[in-house]
């Protein structure tokens, strides 16, 4: 997935794609643990795609904070980001 493709997705599509990639990584790691060596490149590519999505989500969060006039600290604790992401994921799963 190219960076321009990631930037072109809306927020809902980003979260859906992120969930899809996390599921794909889980399955690929399971296959790799069973000895399937064909999955190594797929794991690497999926990790990079997931990192691109996470980067874009964080960039949009910072951009929204700046647009609201809030103080942009630039760094949020990992636990807080995880809780927010889980809350968004749970909200999306409920709907």
Write the layout of secondary structure elements.
Blueprint: H1 3-7, H2 11-33, H3 40-67, H4 78-94
Helix pairs in contact: 2-3
Descriptive key words:
95 residues, mainly alpha, 4 helices, 0% strand, elongated
* Biggest sheet details: none
List the secondary-structure elements in sequence, H or E: HHHH
Distance N to C terminus? 27 Å
Mean pLDDT: 87
Radius of gyration: 15 Å
Instruction: Give the strand tally.
Output: 0
Structural class: mainly alpha
Proportion in β-strands: under 5%
Task: Determine the fraction of residues in helical runs and give it as a percent range.
Answer: over 70%
Describe the protein's architecture and organization:
- By secondary structure, the protein is an all-alpha fold.
- It has one domain.
- Helix content is 77%, strand content 0%.
- The two termini are 27 Å apart.
Compact description:
With 95 residues, this protein is an all-alpha fold.
